[in-house]
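Example 9 (inverse folding). The structure is encoded as follows.
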């Protein structure tokens, strides 16, 4: 992709067979080096975790893979349905643990968020109400990144991120109890624009084999490894936020394929004007995405420390 100057869906074309082989080799090599008994993959029923589970299964065999489902009681029934679908297709073991005890103790449980998050009818109604009020998620997200206080947005973000961190605690404990290697499913698109919980289940794992690939590339990998069409065609749905049926559309006001193309253009040092002209999007929108990428840099980097040259003192 170096030196890329034309942006379209062909920009993401990959050799799926070779790429999958390379990823599977990476997984199997690291698994052998880890001396673990197997691999644990948290599965949510979405594209990312389904692809990760499929690649892990192809890499080390279904008998050594466990899918971990971490729902909330009364949560999204669709996530449970699609999670079971990929587990059955792969023929792997599974374990379900409800996260309610820990989120109750941390006071980040919200029955309304949990119930409405999985009900499409209510999500659509809430989205319409929020738009009438001018209370779009996009505005709250961008204002918060800029350091402006948006109390309602921050309140819900804190609860949602806390629940993702609770899932990580359960996943780590189960992995350690059973001597398993924990494999995560985050990818380059969501990380680039900060659509993940720092120190959450979508940020921390022993291996993140999809971390350097765009969502558009994950779709091709998913097709190659036989992910069911029902999962491939699902919107990027966070499953926990009323009114949000597609996190890219809600948080960025752009569909995921366009976000990918913008990020690819920026990665290849194209100007905002060049990207805007090719994608028929305003230059202002491209600059907003660039700002979001820059403002979420700290979110992608853990435990920052100063880079210093320490000079020894001469005590002679």
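The amino acid assigned to each position is listed next.
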């Amino acid at each position: 992709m170096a030196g890329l100057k034309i942006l379209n869906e062909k920009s993401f074309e990959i050799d799926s067979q070779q790429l999958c082989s390379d990823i599977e080799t990476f997984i199997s090599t690291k698994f052998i080096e880890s001396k673990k008994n197997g691999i644990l993959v948290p599965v949510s029923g979405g594209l990312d975790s389904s692809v990760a589970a499929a690649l892990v299964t192809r890499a080390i065999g279904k008998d050594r893979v466990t899918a971990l489902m971490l729902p909330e009681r009364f949560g999204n029934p669709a996530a449970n349905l699609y999670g079971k679908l990929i587990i059955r297709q792969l023929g792997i073991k599974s374990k379900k643990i409800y996260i309610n005890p820990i989120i109750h103790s941390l006071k980040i449980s919200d029955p309304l968020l949990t119930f409405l998050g999985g009900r499409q009818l209510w999500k659509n109604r809430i989205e319409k109400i929020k738009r009438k009020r001018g209370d779009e998620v996009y505005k709250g997200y961008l204002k918060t990144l800029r350091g402006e206080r948006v109390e309602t947005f921050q309140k819900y973000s804190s609860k949602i991120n806390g629940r993702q961190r609770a899932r990580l605690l359960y996943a780590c404990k189960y992995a350690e109890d059973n001597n398993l290697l924990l494999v995560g499913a985050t990818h380059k698109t969501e990380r680039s624009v900060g659509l993940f919980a720092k120190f959450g289940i979508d940020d921390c794992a022993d291996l993140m084999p999809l971390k350097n690939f765009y969502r558009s590339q994950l779709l091709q990998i998913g097709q190659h490894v036989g992910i069911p069409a029902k999962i491939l065609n699902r919107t990027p749905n966070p499953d926990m936020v009323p009114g949000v049926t597609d996190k890219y559309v809600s948080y960025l006001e752009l569909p995921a394929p366009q976000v990918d193309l913008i990020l690819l253009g920026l990665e290849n040092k194209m100007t905002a004007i060049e990207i805007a002209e090719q994608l028929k999007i305003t230059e202002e929108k491209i600059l907003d995405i660039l700002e979001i990428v820059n403002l979420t840099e700290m979110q992608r980097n853990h435990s920052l420390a100063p880079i210093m040259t320490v000079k020894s003192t001469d005590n002679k």
